[in-house]
């Protein structure tokens, strides 16, 4: 029988304010490559949800991580997120409004992002603006001409540069690269054809500089076409990465379809390396041959993050694998001022050290919007806005205050 004193203790324990649960789960990095030998795992599920072992302690750690917003595989991730990171829900909708780009405009304290290509045949793409001061959203309007089907984007030299794609929502629009002055809202078309052939699906872009010269790289994949042939035009150009050199007035393909089904593209802070993600999911490469579709056919690629050197002519050379995506593909990519590489993958936003070690995860099981999860549409992109991470949950939008400035306002890679 309990004494009065211990009952009082029990009561005070019950009525005491509950300690906020620590939302970060730390998984030893060793568990990513060494597990009890009878483990089982599944490529179609995340590491923490799809892996079971005979070790109770490891299983319960993975289970605990499955519902957590933050998973740290390395101490350095704790330095990025701090002791008490707090997810903040900005909006939660039934439409796929928060999907691509993720452009921070420091001068206006805004983040611009674009709606999902998944709904592009029924709802023409549009841009939404997040005001970081007030945490309010509004649709971008009042531009000098309409911005049709915006996709990936990059902030450079006072302008937002946007990759736009053609779709059945507007048969006359061919897509291409445009620029928008965020103050005057003046829109200009930068490029939209290769000798009269439209690009397939301009997806993402980045500006790089070398001394006084500047170069624009953009990716032109075609993954919209295979699953949705009615929504997109038949490809006429091979997929690949292109480079525009305004000094020489020169547009060139610089990475061929034999190397990549490209998606996101970013540059390292020292401008010496180019990162490009490949959109071929693992299970697609497991079939020996995909039906060839025009010149853009793909075959034995994989969900890699590739790293290239940018040589003295500012051309990408020496391709090597920088990272392999655990589940799905890496879509959007951003590099922070320390050279860490952040990618949006099916598991969530994965952060890799400059050497390629996965140091942590912003867990999709927590951040992906419910409507997006129900339609199996993964998180595609996010923004690094100073010390704020803006997560596009596709049908939801979150911010997380970081413990450090990931990308500073005067960084050469504001992105
Ligand atoms: C993963 O999903 C793909 C596509 O649905 C399927 O073909 C493959 O068999 C699955 N792999 C496993 C290990 O379940
Ligand atoms: C947060 O940043 C400060 C300053 O850089 C650092 O001293 C501290 O260790 C960081 N916090 C964590 C949890 O790493
Ligand atoms: C939460 O857990 C992480 C990982 O173990 C730790 O670094 C952090 O200090 C903890 N935060 C608090 C407030 O205890
Ligand atoms: C988002 O809204 C849905 C209903 O549409 C709701 O079930 C869900 O809990 C909401 N998500 C968050 C994170 O509040
Ligand atoms: C433009 O957006 C603002 C803010 O959301 C709104 O008040 C205004 O009515 C919009 N204008 C048009 C022409 O849609
Ligand atoms: C369709 O695209 C053309 C440019 O090719 C543009 O002028 C027109 O405004 C677009 N229509 C809609 C509804 O967006
Ligand atoms: C974890 O996997 C189970 C199937 O084993 C699935 O039903 C559930 O939705 C998954 N949870 C998350 C958060 O992904």
Automatic annotation (TrEMBL):
* Superkingdom of the organism of origin: Eukaryota
Q: Which Pfam families match?
A: SGL
Query: Which residue ranges does the record assign to the SMP-30/Gluconolactonase/LRE-like region domain?
Result: 240-360
Keyword Hydrolase in the entry? The reply is no
Instruction: Give the signal peptide, or none.
Output: 1-20
List the keywords (alphabetical). Answer: Signal
Report the InterPro entries cross-referenced here. Answer: 6-blade_b-propeller_TolB-like (IPR011042), Oryzine_lactonohydrolase (IPR052988), SGL (IPR013658)
Against Gene3D superfamilies, the record matches this protein to: TolB, C-terminal domain (2.120.10.30)
| Record-given protein name | SMP-30/Gluconolactonase/LRE-like region domain-containing protein
């Amino acid at each position: 029988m309990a004494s009065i004193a211990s009952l009082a203790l029990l009561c005070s324990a019950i009525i005491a304010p509950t300690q906020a649960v620590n939302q970060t789960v730390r998984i030893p990095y060793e568990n990513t490559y060494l597990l009890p030998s009878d483990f089982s795992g599944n490529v179609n599920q995340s590491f923490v949800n799809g892996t079971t072992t005979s070790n109770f302690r490891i299983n319960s750690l993975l289970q605990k991580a499955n519902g957590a917003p933050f998973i740290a595989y390395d101490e350095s991730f704790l330095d990025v997120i701090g002791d008490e990171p707090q997810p903040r829900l900005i909006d939660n909708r039934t439409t796929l409004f928060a999907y691509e780009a993720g452009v921070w405009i420091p001068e206006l304290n805004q983040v611009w992002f674009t709606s999902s290509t998944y709904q592009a045949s029924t709802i023409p793409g549009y841009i939404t603006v997040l005001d970081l001061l007030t945490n309010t959203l509004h649709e971008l309007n009042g531009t000098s001409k309409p911005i049709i089907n915006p996709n990936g984007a990059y902030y450079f030299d006072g302008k937002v540069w946007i990759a736009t794609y053609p779709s059945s929502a507007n048969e006359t629009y061919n897509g291409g690269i445009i620029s928008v002055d965020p103050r005057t809202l003046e829109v200009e078309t930068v490029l939209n054809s290769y000798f009269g052939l439209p690009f397939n699906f301009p997806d993402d872009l980045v500006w790089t500089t070398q001394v006084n010269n500047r170069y624009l790289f953009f990716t032109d994949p075609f993954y919209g076409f295979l699953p949705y042939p009615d929504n997109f035009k038949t490809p006429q150009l091979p997929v690949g990465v292109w480079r525009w050199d305004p000094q020489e007035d020169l547009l060139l393909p610089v990475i061929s379809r034999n190397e990549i089904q490209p998606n996101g593209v970013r540059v390292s802070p020292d401008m010496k390396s180019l990162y490009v993600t490949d959109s071929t999911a693992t299970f697609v490469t497991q079939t020996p041959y995909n039906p060839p579709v025009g010149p853009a056919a793909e075959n034995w690629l994989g969900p890699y993050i590739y790293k290239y050197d940018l040589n003295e002519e500012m051309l990408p050379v020496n391709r090597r694998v920088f990272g392999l995506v655990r589940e799905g593909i890496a879509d959007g990519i951003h590099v922070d001022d320390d050279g860490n590489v952040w990618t949006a993958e099916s598991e969530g936003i994965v952060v890799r050290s400059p050497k390629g070690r996965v140091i942590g995860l912003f867990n999709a099981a927590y951040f992906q919007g419910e409507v997006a999860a129900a339609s199996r549409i993964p998180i595609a992109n996010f923004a690094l806005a100073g010390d704020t991470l803006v997560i596009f949950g596709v049908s939801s939008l979150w911010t997380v205050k970081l413990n450090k400035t990931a990308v500073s306002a005067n960084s050469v890679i504001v992105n």
